[in-house]
TrEMBL record:
A biological process from GO: isopentenyl diphosphate biosynthetic process, methylerythritol 4-phosphate pathway involved in terpenoid biosynthetic process
Gene Ontology molecular functions: 1-deoxy-D-xylulose-5-phosphate reductoisomerase activity; isomerase activity; manganese ion binding; NADPH binding
The protein's name in its UniProt record: 1-deoxy-D-xylulose 5-phosphate reductoisomerase
Pfam families: DXP_redisom_C, DXP_reductoisom, DXPR_C
Gene name in the database record: dxr
Keyword Magnesium assigned: yes
NCBIfam families linked to this entry: Dxr, PRK12464.1
Sequence positions that bind 1-deoxy-D-xylulose 5-phosphate: 122, 148-149, 173, 196, 209, 214-215, 218
InterPro entries attached to this UniProt entry: DXP_reductoisomerase (IPR003821), DXP_reductoisomerase_C (IPR013644), DXP_reductoisomerase_N (IPR013512), DXPR_C (IPR026877), DXPR_C_sf (IPR036169), NAD(P)-bd_dom_sf (IPR036291)
Organism: Alteribacillus persepolensis
Pathway field: Isoprenoid biosynthesis; isopentenyl diphosphate biosynthesis via DXP pathway; isopentenyl diphosphate from 1-deoxy-D-xylulose 5-phosphate: step 1/6
Amino acid sequence: MKNIALIGSTGSIGTQTLDIIRTHRDEFNLVSIAAGRNIELVLKQIREFSPNVVAVERKQDAEHIQQQVDPAVKVLHGKEGLLEAAVADNADFLMNALVGSLGLEPTLQAMEAGMDIGIANKETLVTAGHLVTEKAKKHQVQLLPVDSEHSAIFQSLEGNRRQEVERLIVTASGGSFRDRSRSELEGVSVEDALKHPNWQMGAKITIDSATMMNKGFEVIEAHWLFDMSYDDIDVVLHKESIIHSLVEYRDKSVLAQLGSPDMRVPIQYAMSYPNRLELNDTERLNLWEIGKLHFEKPDFDRYRCLRYAYEAGRTGGTLPTVLNAANEEAVRHFLNGQITFLSIETHIEEALGRHQTIQHPDLDTILEVDKETREFVSSRIG
Ligand SMILES: NC(=O)C1=CN([C@@H]2O[C@H](COP(=O)(O)OP(=O)(O)OC[C@H]3O[C@@H](n4cnc5c(N)ncnc54)[C@H](OP(=O)(O)O)[C@@H]3O)[C@@H](O)[C@H]2O)C=CC1
Ligand SMILES: CC(=O)[C@@H](O)[C@H](O)COP(=O)(O)O
Ligand SMILES: [Mn+2]
């Protein structure tokens, strides 16, 4: 039995993680959850899964929940509550399904406690990949990829020698506006940007997918998870999201993982690794029906965020922290209707352009740069 701490329980990845726990009660036991403000759903989750520890963002919500549930349930709030929920009781696996760099500190803390991590929260690896991978090595814990592309790469690496890998090929759907030219992006609505062609995901990642910042983040994520140079990580547009990513070996053999788009597959694999459990109610891949798969080279002028991500990743230090924080802030303002879709890129470019990179930053430096970048972007928006 694996004891699971789940942070981000009310989101897209969080609720799908609970689907897996629900169907494999003999394998997984939920000991804690953390969420933001969706209190009705948190209450439902407490009633169904009986976690011992629960954390939410605000004090008044924690007090409300505490009055509604068994007094034995410990209901916490704020950053301290989130950190405590991440390492609660006898949890031995943390599923990090939070959105944003908020996920960094709970990840580091859980690794210090010797827990393996299912890492959906890619912003953690973008903002401080060096700290996370160093800590994983130091405490000998596993970082199990949940992101579909990284799970595909992880699966395509299994049973092979790492030193024989030549290249990683990360697939990209192209997002909500994949069939539009750059000039057709002027004035697009939030509603249209939220219509991803293949995946049902949280709002922030859906916008990241439309700007291709998601793919840029995934390149940085692949760099840290698989210790690959940026020169050996390519992106290919593949609009069907059937091939989830590929690994090329030195004999030019290419291995890949395929399947109908369903995040429960990589979520479950991260939780059950090295075992594979049944997943019955997912769509079986039917190649006869699909007929054709398409591939294209991405244009770095059309998808500027992808270019910024390669540049920030190659520079390293605090520049990826700036990339992430500026993006989080710009996307938040876009979702609130305060800036246009194309100005997401402009704000990120400005934030990157003014930053003096600090190499080998420690946690305090990362947190300071993150805060300062958010303030800068917000101040430009007014
Ligand atoms: N969704 C997907 O299919 C995929 C997602 N990912 C990555 O996984 C991560 C999660 O994405 P997704 O599930 O889509 O995101 P969602 O927006 O759906 O969920 C985010 C979760 O974080 C919680 N949260 C937000 N702010 C706080 C806070 N201050 N304190 C505590 N909890 C907070 C939310 O709580 P609440 O709603 O209660 O406020 C919610 O539970 C992201 O990093 C994303 O890039 C990667 C691959 C695929
Ligand atoms: C499901 C998943 O892993 C997402 O990160 C997905 O990759 C988004 O799709 P694109 O960024 O390729 O549009
Ligand atoms: Mn992905």
